[in-house]
Amino acid sequence: MGDLTTERSNPTGTAPVLVASNRGPVSFSTAEDGTLALRRGGGGLVSGLSAIGDPDAVWVCAALGDADRRAAREAPDGRLDRAGHDVGGQAVRMLDIDPETFARAYNGVANSTLWFVHHLLYATPTAPAFGAAFRTEWQAYTAYNAAFAEALAAEAAPGAAVLVQDYHLSLAPALLRAARPDLRIGHFSHTPWAPPEYFRLLPDDVAESVLTGILGADRAAFLTRRWALAFAECCAAVLGAEVDREALTVTHAGRTTRLGVHGLGADADFLRERAHRPDVEERLAALREAVGDRRTVVRVDRTELSKNIVRGFQAYRHLLRTRPEWHDRVVHIAFAYPSRTDLAEYRDYTARVRELAAEINTEFGTDSWQPLILHVNDDFPRSLAAYRLADVALVNPIRDGMNLVAKEVPVVSDRGCALVLSREAGAHAELGEDALSVNPYDVIATADALHTGLTMAADERADRTKRLAAAATALPPQQWFLDQLDALR
Ligand code: G6P
């Protein structure tokens, strides 16, 4: 790692706008002939950054696997664009962080600790237990954040705006400010934020560092007011910071950080066009064939512990057990795409999801009716086809920063779709009025909501879907990004 103080006296970068995130806009794999194959990702940040159309903007991200590392090493200063890769007209600096340090920071701290804290996922009688292994991971997390701060400090033009993303990078804002006080720094949390009594499961010094790390930004932004206020409450409880809940500011150690709320919406134009391409039509025909003239309950998730897929299946099972009129008249289409398979908890969870799906099919299935269709391989066009077909969409996370599936389904739905939505999803703040709200832990209430959705009159469903789609697209990704940039200026 270089010397941050050198950057302070001599800022040499030229980027007026920078984004930093763990996962970048591109990833690499090694093709059979040994060359690097590049894949471009999508999402809010990608379309957001494209909105400013500034060729000097730089995206700093981490190399996630071996092929990424090779690409980063072979590129001058990790700048993939300068190595001739087609990164979508964008400048991308990919950081080749030592694999062990990366794994400890990403799997150990970000995904097994901070993610668990913010989503309230611990079974507390046994976890967490912060011992020596955690301290090694925490050191790695600090080094990983320092590597980002160093790269950002090197790339940023004087006075540049830097948008740091998510819980992987909670220390980077303060580290960057120390190196480059001239910069305008924003931090954005895409997750929920834990309430103070749960946040304080973290060791005291770690809890303090996470908060003061983010307070190093000029502005700390969240997907809903609820998460912004939870962050403020943690600052008050842990740091004794002064909090203005109306103005949404946190003052600590003589500096004030503004809090912001930007509820990322669905990209209507993109979705509507994409959902009618031939590959989606083809998959829609196949799904229709499998479903016949039955009703559908659709869910699409990454297989995250927070997504609550198991209780969702239990609710569907309860529906079939208690309301036999639905036998042979409904199909649950569930897509549970792989996520974070390095973590044992995630692998176990995926196994439980598959097991329960098989149990439900054994309990109720007949020669001509498969009550639950589960797919675990990622297929975006098939997801869009299922969105179009859904009579009911089930989105029941334990807790979720936003949940874009809840916003995407109403936008592409062909005939209107009832949305069963957890009150613990960030999206509930905007969609709650026209959704069927559920307590995600209440399996019976969720089953009842599925029944209500399945029996909702067609015109009511269509009306609600129209309003849901309007609310879901109120802040498209490009505007979401530009608003944050404007607010920093
Ligand atoms: C979800 C969260 C984001 C997070 C991302 C990381 O999408 O909403 O807050 O950045 O997961 O996922 P990854 O696959 O990179 O671990």
From TrEMBL:
Gene3D superfamilies: Glycogen Phosphorylase B. Residues 1-20 are annotated as: Disordered. Pfam families: Glyco_transf_20 (PF00982). CDD domains: GT20_TPS. InterPro entries: Glyco_trans_20. Belongs to the glycosyltransferase 20 family. This is Trehalose-6-phosphate synthase.
